[in-house]
Every structure is written in C-alpha cells, then in structure tokens.
Amino acid sequence: MSNYIGHDDAWADWRRTMAGDRMHHGWILSGRKGVGKSAFAMAAARELVAEDGVPQPTGQHPDIRYLSHPPRNDTEARKRDDGKPFELARNIKVDQIRELQRRLNTRPTLGSRRAVIIDPADDMETSAANALLKSLEEPPAGTFFLLIAHRMGRLLPTIRSRCRILTFPRISDLDMDAILARESPQASAQERSAAIAAASGSPGAAIDFVELDLGKIHALMQQVADQGDPDFVLRGRLAGAIGARPSREKQLAAIELARAVVADKMHGIGQHQIPAMVETHGELVRLAGQAPTYNFDPGLLVMEIGTLLANLAASRTPANG
C-alpha cells in the first residue's frame, strides 16, 4: 500500500469495489501532480492482479503495463538505452496506445487479471485518446485501466464517462511542512514556506521547488506585490534571484509562485481591488499555460511577472482616493 497523506478515502473506495461482485474496468485517478497518484496506481494494480496461491514478483510485474511519455526522438531513445539522461516527448503517442492494444490481445501471464497504467492520461495526443477509447468501450477480458490525470478537464468527455473517479485532495500546509521537514531537512523555514506556497497542496511539487531555491524569489515577489516597484529596483533584484539562464522548471516554478502570491493577497481585499486581482491572476494562468512549450526570454518573463505583481500594489488605492 502506498503510504501517502490524503490517500485513505481513495484506498477505501478502491478496496470496497474490489470486494464487490463486479470491479469496474476503468478508473481515473484525479488530483494535482505530485500528490502520489502514480504510487497509488502501482500499489493498487499489484493488489488487483495478485491471486491466492500465485507467487508475485517483487520487481517489474508482467501483468502491469505502465505507459508514459516516450523519449523525444531517436537520439533521446538511444540515450535512454545507454542509461544516460534523456528528454521526454510532450505527449503520449498514438503508436504507444496501438502497441499496447496489440499486447492486450494475449492472455495475462500469471493470473486472470492485468492492469494498464497511463501516466498522465491527460497528456495523450487526441488520436491516442481516441484509440484508447475503443479499449475502454470494449475492454479485453480481465483488463483494467488506471488513468492518472493531473488536469481531468483535458480528458475526452467520452473517456471520463466510462471510468470511475478517485479524487486525491490537495494536502494541507501543515502536513506539507511536515513532509518537507522530513524529506528536505536542509531547507530553511523560508524555503519551505516558498515551496508550500508555490506547490498548492502537492508534496511532490514542493520537494521539487525546494531544490529550485525559491525562498528569496518568494520574498521579493511579496515585496513587489505589497509595495509596488516604481523605480524597477525590486524587479532587477527578482531577475537576479531567478538567474540569467533559469531552467524551464525554474521559470514554471516562478510563475506558480507568483500565482500563489496573488491568491494570498485575495484574502480580505476591498471591492475595488477585485478586478485587478482577477486580471493579474488570469495573466499568470496564461503564462503558466504557455511556458511548457514557448521559448520565453527569461529576462522578459521575469519583468512581465514583476510588472503584474507591481500592479497589485497600485490597485490598493481606490480610484476616487
């Protein structure tokens, strides 16, 4: 069993269904990235395929198929095969689904059941999702699908309608801090606070953000949002804290951190501030959606984030003064 905070209800639902007369063949595991859905899927799949009297392997299981992003191209595939770091493609491809379906024409190896995990299913190409839909409509005997979804709205409605949903909630800030203290003991209280703010209830994301050293960035963003930045000094410091050549992961983390700063400022605001808050948050959502695929100039991106946050300070004074 995966030992993660927030999984108790999902386990109860899963095991209640397993104990019933009929196990549903399609499941969606929905929640933010980093809350442990992959670990749950693997542990649940092992429970599903295990049978009394049939020895189960401790390593890779022949009746559990795990599908995720492939290497980006042939060069990256060779790096993977050589045991070197390699880049992933942005999507799960239709060829992967079709190859999976060919394998599903055979019987399970050890028992009568097999599990297919697609991680994350919301990153399937449209053609791949349509191909998978055929298997969900007419699942091979003994085959069960566990579809991990970070953004369930991106799944086809026809896929959602054919699956049961297990929801994995965001983790409280208090529990997140305890997890970070255990998993990243080197992080200061300021670094943990920044990571928790940026991760929005995802322990896995928070641990990743600690490694990106967001503490100083968080403090500067809060300062810009509180005080404004009429002489661009704070935005200059923010650019220095993020670095001249930040990784894409750090750029994404900076956008998420700015969204968290805006969300925090929305508590107790006056009526006149709401339009500016909504507009700023909407622009940050737009940047977050573009950042995974756009090649932003890091300096311009930092300035745009800083300007959006500075506008919040300007919005604090009512127009009629």
Summarize the structure.
Pfam families: DNA_pol3_delta2 (PF13177). This protein is of the alpha/beta class.
What global shape is seen? elongated
- What fraction of residues sit in β-strands? 5-15%
- Low-pLDDT runs of 5+ residues are none
Characterize the biggest β-sheet: 5 strands, parallel
What is the CATH class name of the largest domain? Alpha Beta
Write the CATH homologous superfamily of the largest domain: P-loop containing nucleotide triphosphate hydrolases
CATH topology of the largest domain: Rossmann fold
Give, in order, the helices and strands: HEHEHHEHEHEHHHHHHHH
How many alpha or pi helices? Answer: 14
Ends apart, CA distance between termini: 59 Å
DSSP strand tally: 5
Class derived from helix and strand content: alpha/beta
Residue share in helix: 40-55%
Under the CATH scheme, which architecture of the largest domain would be assigned? 3-Layer(aba) Sandwich
- Give me the side-by-side strand order of the main sheet: 2-3-4-1-5
Kindly list the characteristics that best describe this protein:
single chain, 321 residues, alpha/beta, Rossmann fold, 5 strands, 8% strand
Describe what you observe in this structure.
α8 packs across α12, α10 packs across α14 and α13 (274-290) runs antiparallel to α14 (298-314). The termini are far apart. This protein has 321 residues and is an alpha/beta fold. The longest helix has 18 residues, at 248-265. It has two domains: 8-167, 3-Layer(aba) Sandwich (Rossmann fold), CATH 3.40.50.300; 212-314. The chain is built from 14 helices and five strands. 35% of the residues are buried. It has a five-stranded parallel sheet, with helices on both faces. The mean pLDDT is 88. Helices cover 51% and strands 8% of the residues. It holds the Pfam family DNA_pol3_delta2. This is AAA family ATPase. InterPro entries: AAA+_ATPase (IPR003593), DNA_Rep/Repair_Clamp_Loader (IPR050238), P-loop_NTPase (IPR027417). It comes from Aurantiacibacter rhizosphaerae. Residues 23-172 form the AAA+ ATPase domain.
